[in-house]
Design a protein that fits this description.
The protein is α+β, with helices and mostly antiparallel strands and 172 residues long. It has a domain of 113 residues: OB fold (Dihydrolipoamide Acetyltransferase, E2P) (Beta Barrel), CATH 2.40.50. It is built from 3 helices and 5 strands; from the N terminus they run E-E-E-H-H-E-E-H. The protein has a 5-stranded antiparallel β-sheet. Strand 1 and strand 2 form a beta hairpin. The radius of gyration is 29 Å and the shape is globular.
Length: 172
């Protein structure tokens, strides 16, 4: 067989009247003429950077809650709060409470602050009973893996001011 003139190294019959096709841009890639250019100033951003809530007490709202296991396999609750006012407004902070016998008091304290009766009872509640609950959280800074993190030390019941601020916040 003769080598095909339209495909180097290929043997076989050449197609009569075949034309060479122009190379096409791979599908899914934009035409350079239509490609939009974006420019953003990231000179003040560090990789892995995040907003750090200031230390102290803050008006907050519980925006997420789940029961999980710690890295050691122990049962725990994970609470996520959004700060509603002040210099840390909008910053979200997580709080972990162990369900091990020696630490359950912290869960009871937190549930009570969010309006769920828990002390000395068999407490039954749904996630929806908690989400959106206003409260006051006390934040401190701690080190983890060489980085400063905002941590919740304690959750307190809301004041009248906290309730007023939480009503003007966007729903969860």
């Amino acid at each position: 067989m003769a080598e095909r003139p339209d495909i180097p190294g290929m043997k076989g019959k050449s197609k009569a009247g075949s034309k060479k096709k122009e190379p096409q841009q791979p599908m899914g890639l934009p035409d350079e003429a239509q490609d939009e250019v974006f420019e953003e100033d990231f000179s003040d951003v560090e990789v892995g950077g995040f907003a750090l809530a200031s230390e102290g007490k803050h008006h907050a709202k519980l925006i997420d809650f789940e029961k999980t296991e710690s890295s050691k396999g122990n049962p725990q609750f994970v609470w996520q709060f959004r700060i509603l006012a002040g210099d840390s407004e909008g910053i979200e902070v997580r709080f972990w409470t162990s369900l091990l016998p020696q630490a359950r008091w912290k869960v009871v304290e937190t549930l009570e602050a969010l309006g769920i009766e828990a002390e000395g009872t068999i407490s039954r509640f749904k996630r929806s009973d908690l989400i959106g609950s206003p409260c006051i959280i006390e934040v401190f800074h701690g080190e983890y893996d060489g980085r400063t993190n905002a941590k919740v030390d304690r959750v307190y019941p809301p004041t009248e001011e906290t309730i007023k601020i939480s009503k003007s916040d966007t729903p969860v």
